[in-house]
Amino acid sequence: MIRFLAAFVMLMGSHLQAETLKLAVTTSFNNSGLSDVLLPAIKADTGLDVQLLIVGTGQAIRLGEAGDVDAILVHSKKAEEAFVAAGFGTHRREIMYNDFVLIGPSSDPAGIAAAATAVEALQRIAGAQAVFVSRGDDSGTHKKELSLWSAAALDPQQFGPWYKAVGSGMGASLNTASSLDAYIMADRASWLNFGNKRDLGLLFGGDPVLFNQYAYLPVNPARHLHINQVGASRLEEWLTSGRAKQLINGYQINGEALFVFNAVP
Predict the structure, then answer these.
(1) Cα Rg of the chain, angstroms
(2) Could you point out which of 70, 76, 141, 204 has its C-alpha 20 to 30 Å from the C-alpha of 11?
(3) Percentage of the residues of the chain whose pLDDT score is greater than 70
(4) What is the pLDDT of residue 15?
(5) 103, 184 in Cβ contact below 8 A?
(6) Which residues of 107-140 are buried (b: 16+ CB within 10 A; e: fewer)?
(7) CATH 3.40.190.10 corresponds to the domain 99-210
(8) pLDDT under 70 in the chain at which residues?
(9) 217, 25 Cβ separation under 8 angstroms
(10) How far apart (Å, rounded) are the C-alpha atoms in residues 187 and 192?
(11) What are the residues facing 260 on neighbouring strands?
């Protein structure tokens, strides 16, 4: 009996250790390197083995709608609110933020470093027809970029060959911009963690319109009965905890913080 109980306890412990949770996250979140810090701590503290599906925000939302993941961590508020309103997510919980920045060649042929606003910076790029790389992948970054072109009264569909929509994640798009010596909009965290900068530099930032909020949305188990609702709740509790705040705020590259924790307990 004792040997049986010991074997049972070992089996249960193995089962708990193997508990998985599928989380769709943006490529920008993954490219920042923060996941390498958070995932081991999450597993140690909660027993959850979080499996990341790394895609753009649009694809992450579609994975949530299909019930292919238990939760999503994305950065496009309008799309997130629509996801919850349609009943695919139970709620939206803000976790952390950083900002978008405009990257470009050090020679800055469009002169965006002298722009007063992000909209003006894009207008200068369009006016100069300087090479610009767009993610073009329905990601949160792409959605933000399109909203800024709209605010500038410009339509990318009318642009010439200087505008290059590559349909790629943040890291791959930055590599393309680096090879073409082109302008690109990126989240600050991905840029700071990007190793192939070559002649590119951060030329414009700080406009409040470039604020970049990340939010956690559990998938609605009423839509998909197989969803790991308990695990998703456990992960949310951890992501809004003091432990998460310490790790998120403490994550730096060359002394510069990449994210700011702003979850409300």
Answers:
(1) 21
(2) 70
(3) 93
(4) 42
(5) yes
(6) ebebebeebebbbebbbbbbebebbbbbbbbbbb
(7) yes
(8) 1-18
(9) no
(10) 9
(11) 97
**Contact of 214 with 29, CB cutoff 8 Å:** yes
**Which of the following CATH numbers is that of domain 2-97+212-261: 3.40.190.10, 3.30.390.50, 1.20.81.30, 2.40.110.10?**
3.40.190.10
SS (H, E, C) 53-122: EEECHHHHHHHHHHCCCCEEEECCHHHHHHHHHCCCECCCEEEEEEEEEEEEECCCCCCHHHCCCHHHHH
Map residue 140 onto helix, strand or coil. helix
What's the pLDDT at 215? 98
Q: What pLDDT, on a 0 to 100 scale, did the predictor assign at position 29?
A: 87
Q: Please report the pLDDT score of residue 222 as a whole number.
A: 96
Contact 132, 163 (CB under 8 A): yes
CB within 8 Å of 159: residues ≥ 6 apart = 126
DSSP bridge pairs for 214: 96
Q: What is the three-state SS of 234-262? A: HHHHHHCCHHHHHHHHHCEECCEECCEEC
Q: Model-level pTM?
A: 0.86
What proportion of the chain, given as a percentage, has pLDDT over 90? 86
In the chain, where are the structural domains located?
A: 2-97+212-261, 99-210
CB atoms within 10 A of CB 258: 21
pLDDT tens for 212-229 read 999 999 999 999 999 999
Whether the CA torsion 221, 225, 226, 231 is positive or negative: it is positive
Closest listed residue to residue 92, CA positions, set 116, 75, 117: 75
Question: How far apart are the C-alpha atoms of 246 and 262, rounded to whole Å?
Answer: 11
**Fold agreement between 2-97+212-261 and 99-210:** yes
